[in-house]
Design a protein that fits this description.
Blueprint lengths: L3 H15 L3 H12 L7 H5 L7 H37 L17 H15 L3 E2 L5 E2 L1 H4 L25 E2 L5 H9 L4 E10 L11 E11 L4 H16 L4 E9 L2 E10 L10 E9 L1 H11 L10 E8 H9 L12 H4 L5
Parallel strand pairs: 1-4
Antiparallel strand pairs: 2-3, 4-5, 5-9, 6-7, 7-8, 8-9
The structure holds phenylalanine (PHE).
Phenylalanine binds next to strand 7, strand 8 and strand 9.
């Protein structure tokens, strides 16, 4: 006569041999070996057996458990292999894949990266300052008279507390000199804000690349050489460049720079791209006064500064007809600059 445990084991083994999938296999495991499983129940029953019976039944119980556990494992492996093979059977590796959508840099960012790269080659470091400024950094320290029209509320965005959105990045000239003594050689790209009537070439927010170089013996020749190199690298070696006398309160002499190149869509037309000049001694003096030292003694140090219109440069470079396109987020426009 076989022991009931052996019957249970055989029943379990034949059920395992017949299960169609992993869930069914799990059900079999629970039915026999689970906490209330019929084989497990013999573990409880052991306590009630006599001394003589215990080792005999114990041995059968262990054998039954081991046999069923091994069979469960084996069957589980087979079922998993089969379901993986089934999944792969549906996979057609010859079908074209689904491409992920790649982003691209905004044309202004591309323009900025190129500009930074060129100025790095000439030894300029990056500097920055806040968009929200005080009047001193934006005007007074830059030798701008109290009644200068740029300060007018019609031109400048003022906050109620007297602060303002900087109308140019020249504020960073002052912040850089306040923070460190000469020599200084930095560019400061960033946003500027003016209450301009918005049209194809004017936006209330636009972007500039400010430059400042202060050292001993810096001359107009250095200013010209630096900007001519930059503009010819950007627009091509046959670009014509013109320095036109101009007025800025914080530089003397001052110039506006125009470029013209047959290679550009603008062709034979001069286009203004920057303001620049030699840093006014009054600016160096005011910075020294604010620092409380004579680090920027104008007898010892000279410098040049420039402000390039970044939107303007990008419009020329990429032949973009309207400054508003930069901020409209129209993918049909932006995708043209994704490469
Ligand atoms: N800040 C001037 C502007 O916005 C440009 C400029 C910068 C001129 C530096 C001279 C020196 O028009």
């Amino acid at each position: 006569m076989t022991h009931p445990l052996e019957d249970l084991r055989d029943a379990a083994l034949s059920e395992i041999a017949a299960v169609p999938n992993e869930q069914a296999l799990d059900a079999v495991r629970i039915r026999y070996l689970g906490r209330n499983g019929s084989i497990s129940a013999w573990g409880e029953r052991m306590k009630t057996l006599s001394k003589e019976e215990k080792p005999v039944v114990g041995k059968s119980l262990n054998q039954a458990r081991a046999a069923v556990t091994a069979a469960l494992e084996e069957a589980g492996k087979k079922l998993r292999a089969a379901s993986e093979a089934g999944a792969l059977a549906d996979l057609d590796l010859s079908l074209p894949g689904t491409a992920g959508e790649l982003g691209a840099l905004h044309p202004l960012t591309q323009m900025l990266d190129r500009a930074i790269g060129l100025f790095y080659r000439m030894g300029f470091a990056l500097a920055e300052g806040p968009d929200l400024e005080d009047e001193w950094h934006c005007f007074d320290a830059l030798n701008t008279a109290p009644d200068h029209p740029a300060r007018n509320e019609a031109d400048t965005f003022y906050l109620h507390d007297g602060r303002l959105l900087r109308t140019h990045t020249s504020t960073v000239q002052i912040r850089t000199m306040e923070a460190a003594p000469p020599p200084i050689r930095v560019i400061a790209p960033g946003a500027a804000f003016r209450r301009d009537e918005v049209d194809a070439t004017h936006s209330a927010q636009f972007h500039q690349i400010e430059g400042l170089y202060v050292d001993s013996g810096v001359s107009v020749a250095d200013l010209k050489g630096t900007l001519e190199f930059f503009l010819r690298e950007l627009f091509g070696s046959d670009t014509a460049i013109r320095f036109r006398p101009h007025y800025f309160p914080f530089t003397e002499p001052s110039f506006e720079i125009d470029v013209k190149s047959k290679a550009l869509k603008s062709g034979e037309k001069w286009i203004e791209v920057a303001g620049c000049g030699m840093v006014h001694p009054a600016v160096l003096e005011e910075v020294s006064r604010a620092r409380g030292d004579d680090a920027y003694d104008p007898e010892k140090w000279t410098g040049f500064a420039f402000g390039l219109g970044m939107d303007r440069l990008a419009m020329i470079l990429f032949d973009i007809p309207d400054i508003r396109l930069f901020a409209q987020n129209d993918l049909r426009f932006l995708r043209q600059f994704a490469s």
